[in-house]
Amino acid sequence: MIAASKLNVLAGVLAALGLLAACGSAQQRPTAQHIAPKVVAATVSHVQVELTSSPPLFRGALGSVEPDEANAGVLYPGGHPAAFLLGVAIHGSIVAGQKSSEASAAQTSADAVLGKWSSAITGLNIESALAGAAGLAQQTLPITVSTVGATVTGIDEAPLRLYLSTEFTVAQDSRTLTARTLVQVRSLDLSPDIARVAAPSMRSVKHLGGRVEPLDHAHSAAANSADSFAYQNVVEVMSVPRQATTAAEDISPKALQDLVTGLWEQTLVLAVDDLVGSQKDIQAPQQTFRYFRDGKKQFDRGTLIKDSGDRVSFRTLRGWIRSVPTSPEA
Amino acid sequence: MKSSFILVVLTCVAVLTGCAGRVQPPVALDQNFWQKENPRVGVSMTSAQQPAAYLSGADCLLCLAAANIANSELIDHMPTLPAEDLLSLEAELVDTLNAQGLQASAVTDSFSVKHLKPSSLPEGAEKDFSPWADTYDYLLIVDVSMFGTHRSYSGYIPTSDPQAVVKGRVYMVDMSNNQYVLYDAFHTIRAVDGEWDEAPTFPGVTNAYFQAIESSKDNIKGLVAKARCKTCGDTAAEPAVAVSEL
């Protein structure tokens, strides 16, 4: 009887400790290790693009989160360590549940902006947009870019396949669309003649994180089998703001089709540049970039990749690539 | 019984009056400020020397120890971040004021607000700035009391993720009468975009830290520039993308 009681107490303590550890730690979102490119530029002449998240997810942009400073004192039950730990664990689970429900409510509220976009989203031709983006990207890049299934002539070697998983975010003022894309190259797809391990010092950034819930599946897969990817990164491209008067109306299917095509084109150019291009921005000094998002000033720390006058691209501290227009107006 | 009641009432009165310190309401920069001919403005910034990770709400010794252990890597990381972006505000304010036609300069190193005597006046600045009245017509002080990250706890449980914070107050004193012509408190908070627990480099937290600094600097400069522009009618647009290098 006594032994059973002790076992119960022990089990209670262990359960409480487990709960406490789970609640006390950070809210873990799926993250993936940033894998530096292991493919050498000169060996790639054909990139084949495949969308892994079809149809892509559209969301309303979340505003900046104002912290809740409420932290009223809590009294934990005494008398027994197990009771005390259980009290702490219950408190932790209540706090975690509250945070989760607040985040969910915020996203539901943010998604209301999709009302003006819903009919255009329904009519979006994903395959056409991706093929168009590949064609446009090829005009900029020194290599052939195609989608899976497209006929490409004159190239003997196997293409390097690029997997894309995209989330589109509509700004709350409905003026900009942002494409956040997880770009991956799987090691299995690399033929021996183009797979060559690059110097390990190419990139020092190791972590990817951020608000990437729609990419959870891809990120989780990547996190679970990081070694199976020869390259991965997140590329975020924000469109040029639409005129306020235009943004007040429903977006047309053609306008959305063009917008998505353009964002994917820039995503492909940046991703392929990152994958096979030079690493000159790694040595660049860190800077604080200012731009406008949802009509509000936004600041980001990173290193400059390219400044083309009307658009600036930079690498964030997480190693992601972000491309934003330089003007708050169209 | 009656004496006990009186004792309780007196105790309450003593406690309540003790808590009621002088609260300085915000003071917007008056238009008269701009009517002076080339006023000499001294600019000074006081701040903690390095960013830190602040924890609050872990209000028992064991809670505090647990919170410190849980955040030890962040606590170690924050002081390694550069503070120059924030500390450059003093020079930027001098430039901002000079660009608006004032004679602004940074106050010499020997100046220290905390070493000044308390003001004897019932209203106005809490310190007596008169020793500097011969040198300046106005003193603009930025007092940063806290910068880095803040995470709130309730006992053992974190109730928030760490958030970048810059907190303090900015005020300008008219040296002719030791009165505030500008007073505002600022408390800039920036949540981390996405995951925060990315030791050892904490890129999300680090980015939020720089976001909070830039936002605070903009707000503080806006307190001065905005008032100036009310008079001059200048609404010069800010460049959409500006870059500040470390």
Automatic annotation (TrEMBL), chain A:
<feature type="signal peptide">
    <location>
        <begin position="1"/>
        <end position="21"/>
    </location>
</feature>
<protein>
    <submittedName>
        <fullName>Uncharacterized protein</fullName>
    </submittedName>
</protein>
<keyword id="KW-0732">Signal</keyword>
From TrEMBL, chain B:
<feature type="signal peptide">
    <location>
        <begin position="1"/>
        <end position="20"/>
    </location>
</feature>
<keyword id="KW-0732">Signal</keyword>
<protein>
    <recommendedName>
        <fullName>Lipoprotein</fullName>
    </recommendedName>
</protein>
